């Protein structure tokens, strides 16, 4: 029963969406930090420019530094994100020469600038985060060489605003990219799944009895599917051909005895002698018996090969089943002219999983074949041999039947299990279906059928079953 479990398009869309979402999340995180770094570089560069511009404005009068902040320095930091300029010019003693920054510059900051050079630092002041940049100049005037420190800074609001602006632009571009990628993904899925649609249309256009190999160009991903379909078609062709051969052979096998019955009855009807009628009735009875047996075997073979798998397997003692079946056959008239016997069986029960009626049918066909294809007084022996250890899972049990009859030629061994194959013998009443039925039952039970010649003459037929654990 086929159950629809979504579509390939939806699965591809889900996986691609998950992949794009994961990559998009990483890209957005990277875009945010990139925007933050870009805003940091932009404002830090402005602070550096402001320091240099203020340094150019430092003059010395009567031994003291005098600062006249030019308008250019004020315009550097007066952006639309940051409207106020904050600076402080300190002399060598740390006193303020000029400043609009009311933040105290700690002594350790000044010492760090003096020792390490330009310093960048973040600080909190008046409830806001600040970015400060300090720089010390050793040659600030003509009359003295006392150092002067210049500190500039601003709050982080402007940086954050610029970061948000840059990030919004990145998000907008990302959303446009996702939309375009989605459209391209739909187009790509349609193009990628086109070979599957072609293959589906090709199969739908086929007639029910068209079992030819596929004639289609497929991508590498569909090659295994196409080869599997070709293999399935080949098996269907073989099955159909086998069925046609079986039907033809069965028709021929049924036609021959029916024609004989018709001829015998026609001759009897033309005669007025009762003894002729009696002989005709005996011949008709014998022919009807053979035809009935042939029809029964055909039904058994059809049941085994073509009926749906609805079998009920049970745990069976193969030793007991073999013993009971052999005793039933030994009492029949057909076995009176043969030495039908049972080899010594293992003491422990040998359990297999199987259908009782099918295994009885298997044993019956093995015994019937041996009786029909061997001359009177032949010795026929059945037995069981255990392989693979006693009572262990994974072992096997071999059911065999052997006789000292004429056997068959080595070339015929591999064909004996085929329907209507008599091993080249035409001097018996057998129909050639016995081993075919045995082979079908063996396959039904996951068993193997083997046929081997005996020395100096005769046959040995073995069916090897998987062995169940002993209880």
Radius of gyration: 50 Å
CATH architecture of the largest domain, by name, is 2-Layer Sandwich
- Described by its quaternary structure, the protein is single chain
* Low-confidence blocks of residues: none
- State the name of the first-level CATH class of the largest domain: Alpha Beta
Count of β-strands: 14
Listing every helix as H and every strand as E from the N terminus to the C terminus, the arrangement reads HEEHEEHEEEHHHHEHEEHEEHEE
Total individual domains = 3
CATH topology description of the largest domain: Beta-Lactamase
If helices are DSSP runs of H or I spanning 4 or more residues, what is the number of helices?
A: 10
- Principal-axis shape: rod-shaped
Helix content: 40-55%
Structural class: alpha+beta
Give the DSSP E fraction (strand runs of 2 or more residues).
15-25%
Mind summarizing the main beta sheet?
Answer: 5 strands, antiparallel
Integer average pLDDT: 80
**Distance separating the two termini:** 37 Å
Spatial ordering of strands, largest sheet: 4-3-7-6-5
GO molecular function, one term: kinase activity
Catalytic activity: ATP + protein L-histidine = ADP + protein N-phospho-L-histidine
Domain HAMP: 190-241
EC number: 2.7.13.3
């Amino acid at each position: 029963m086929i159950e629809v479990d979504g579509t390939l398009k939806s699965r591809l869309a889900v996986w691609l969406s998950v992949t794009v979402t994961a990559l998009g999340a990483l890209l957005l995180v990277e875009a945010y930090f990139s925007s933050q770094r870009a805003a940091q570089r932009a404002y830090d560069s402005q602070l550096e420019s402001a320091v240099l511009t203020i340094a150019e404005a430092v003059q010395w009068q009567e031994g003291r530094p005098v600062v006249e902040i030019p308008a250019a320095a004020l315009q550097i930091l007066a952006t639309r994100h940051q409207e106020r300029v904050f600076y402080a010019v300190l002399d060598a003693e740390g006193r303020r020469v000029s400043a609009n920054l009311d933040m105290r510059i700690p002594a350790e900051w000044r010492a760090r600038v003096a020792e390490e050079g330009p310093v960048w630092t973040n600080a909190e002041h008046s409830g806001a985060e600040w970015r400060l940049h300090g720089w010390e100049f050793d040659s600030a005037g003509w009359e003295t060489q006392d150092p002067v420190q210049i500190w500039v800074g601003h709050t982080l609001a402007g940086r954050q605003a610029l970061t948000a602006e840059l990030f919004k632009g990145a998000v907008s571009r990302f959303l446009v990219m996702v939309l375009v990628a989605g459209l391209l993904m739909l187009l790509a899925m349609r193009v990628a799944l086109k070979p599957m649609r072609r293959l589906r249309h090709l199969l739908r256009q086929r007639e029910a009895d068209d079992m030819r190999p596929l004639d289609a160009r497929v991508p590498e991903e569909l090659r295994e599917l196409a080869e599997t379909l070709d293999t399935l078609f080949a098996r269907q062709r073989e099955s159909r051909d086998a069925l046609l051969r079986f039907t033809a052979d069965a028709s021929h096998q049924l036609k021959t005895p029916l024609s004989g019955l018709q001829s015998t009855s026609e001759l009897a009807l033309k005669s007025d002698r009762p003894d002729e009628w009696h002989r005709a009735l005996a011949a008709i009875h014998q022919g009807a018996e053979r035809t009935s047996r042939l029809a029964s075997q055909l039904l058994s073979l059809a049941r085994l090969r073509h009926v749906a798998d609805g079998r009920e397997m049970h745990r069976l003692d193969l030793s007991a089943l073999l013993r009971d079946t052999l005793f039933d056959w030994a009492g029949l008239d057909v076995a009176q002219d043969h030495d039908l016997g049972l080899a010594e069986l293992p003491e422990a029960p040998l359990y297999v999983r199987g259908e009782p009626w099918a295994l009885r049918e298997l044993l019956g066909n093995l015994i019937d074949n041996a009786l029909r294809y061997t001359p009177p007084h032949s010795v026929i022996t059945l037995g069981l041999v255990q392989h693979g250890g006693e009572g262990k899972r994974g072992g096997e049990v071999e059911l065999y039947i052997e006789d000292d009859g004429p056997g068959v030629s080595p070339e015929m061994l591999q064909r004996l299990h085929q329907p209507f194959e008599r091993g080249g013998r035409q001097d018996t009443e057998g129909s050639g279906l016995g081993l075919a039925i045995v082979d079908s039952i063996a396959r039904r039970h996951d068993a193997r059928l083997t046929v081997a010649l005996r020395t100096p003459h005769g046959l040995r037929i073995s069916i090897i079953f998987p062995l169940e654990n002993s209880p």
